[in-house]
Amino acid sequence: MHETELLEEQLIQDFPRAIREKQFQVYYQPKFDVRPETPILSSAEALVRWRHPTLGMVSPGVFIPLFENNGLIYRLDSYVWTEAAAQIRDWRMRLGIRLPVSVNVSRIDLYEPKLIDQLREITEQNGLSPHDLLLEITESAYTEDSAQIIERVRQLREIGFRVEMDDFGSGYSSLNMLSTLPVDALKLDMQFIRTAFMDRKDTRLLEAMIQLAEAFEVPTIAEGVETAEQVFTLKAMGCDIIQGYYFSRPLPASDFERFLLDHQPGASDVFLNTKRSRRDRFTYKAMHDPLTGLYNYTAFDILFHDSDQEHIVVLIAQIDRYEQICQNHGRGCADRVVCRIAEVLQKSFRSVDHICRLRTDEFAVIMTRITSEGKELVLAKIERANHTLQVEKENIPAVSLSVGVAFSDREEPEGDIFQDADTALKRLKDKNQTGYAVF
Ligand code: C2E
Ligand code: CA
Ligand code: CA
Predict the structure, then answer these.
(1) Could you tell me which CATH class the domain 288-438 is placed in?
(2) 61 burial level (CB within 10 Å; 0-12, 13-18, 19+)
(3) How is the chain split into domains, by residue range?
(4) Is 414 helix (H, G, I), strand (E, B) or coil?
(5) Closest Cα to atom 15, ligand 1: which residue?
(6) In the CATH scheme, what is the homologous superfamily, with its name and number, of domain 2-280?
(7) CB of 352 within 8 A of CB of 201?
């Protein structure tokens, strides 16, 4: 505790000099509009870092709360806004690229009498319109002294600024306020994404939040998005904008400039489109097998290439004598067999594993964060699934699966993990054997 206090004292003491010497550096993290088929770069968030001469890089998580408590935050924030505005202008002049940037506005800043004039001045001096500078105001701001704060936000919007409510749902939110709330977008708290995709994947709350925003006709932004699975799930649920390591970490201006040149930003009309039509669930359909609800081949392809190729195992499972089942029992029965297999696979594997239906009689499982040390565990799962399926159930005949398996750390790979799992399966079939074969 003592050390923390000392550090805090030092940071406060060093602040004026840090501003003078430009030790604060603004990083930029892209936000993508994911509504079109190919995501388009639509804006960036400015995030501050402190390059301290003796302490090195200090994270905003350390100094922002500190400066919020002692009145320094407004000076820091207006410094960041000024830097961001100058940067927008610089990109426009030099590169001919017009990219809006969102800046963070602390709750404390909203009490500053000069706020409106200052923001207006910063934009005007750089030849920007208020649409170029988006304002992220954290949700907790709205509850503290709501009347005054809400009035402030109303004024900002009146002169043309767009306001995104940051950390929405983080705990203070009064759902009641949504109907009177003056905001242009809801930025979901990162924790929702974390929770939804934890070991027990459960995206119901996340989807409900997005639907809530949809009902109030404001776009939603998700941040902290790290994987392809998260991207297409969010997209399918109707999320409009995505920010996170999946696209890029926050980058210093010079690195961001390269990113900008590689991903020419497009005109994104997310705020203009106020009356939003009922979203078709196109992405969901495009990624899922309609019969079993499992991921389909397209999703498999994305998940496979997105996974950490050093620590996975891929299983390809084929239904034995599938044609015979169709002939002897009919299509309807074959469909029931397929559905039962989907169910058994889902029960046998972990919820973090990706289970896909590749073709009529073929499934694939990607198990993440695993090496061949976990081989026994993987094989036991296959055996258990096969064991269950070999018992006839109600009107579903007994079936068995032939499974090809390949681990990332297999010896002497021939192709990629998928190809090698497929080779293992072929060898098994060529020998007229069933069960499993490890490449
Ligand atoms: P925030 O506004 O919620 O910013 C998002 C934080 O998530 C950033 O942390 C960002 O680097 C991080 N992040 C982005 N994508 C991912 C991801 O895919 N995975 C993970 N794990 N994290 C991701 P950062 O830069 O450390 O900032 C922390 C907080 O500090 C910000 O949270 C914001 O509240 C505050 N902050 C940052 N810059 C400023 C500023 O200029 N002014 C004010 N008032 N607050 C700031
Ligand atoms: Ca933010
Ligand atoms: Ca946030």
Answers:
(1) alpha beta
(2) exposed
(3) 2-280, 288-438
(4) coil
(5) 244
(6) EAL domain (3.20.20.450)
(7) yes
CA 396 → CA 93, 167, 303, 347, 358, distances in Å? 68, 49, 31, 18, 22
Rounded Cα gap, residues 276 and 282, in angstroms: 16
Numbers of helices and strands, H then E, in the chain: 16, 15
User: Of 208 and 272, which is predicted with more confidence?
Assistant: 208
State the Cα–Cα distance between residues 233 and 243, nearest whole angstrom: 14
What pLDDT digit, counting tens, does each position of 120-141 carry?
Answer: 999 999 999 999 999 999 888 7
Q: Which atom of ligand 1 is nearest to the CA of 29?
A: 14
Q: Is the pLDDT of residue 53 over 60?
A: yes
pLDDT for residue 108: 92
Distance (Å) from CA 293 to ligand 3 centroid = 32
Contact in structure between 316 and 303 (CB atoms under 8 Å): no
- Asked whether the predicted pLDDT for residue 42 surpasses 80, the reply is yes
Q: Map tokens 């905003």 to a residue.
A: 60
The angle formed by the CA atoms of residues 201, 205 and 211, to the nearest 5 degrees, is: 130
Q: For all residues of the chain together, what is the average pLDDT? A: 91
- Between the CA of 298 and the centroid of ligand 1 the distance, in Å, is 33
Q: Per-residue pLDDT tens for 304-344?
A: 988 888 899 999 999 999 999 999 999 999 999 999 999 99
Q: Which of 248, 233, 142 is nearest to 193 (CA)?
A: 233
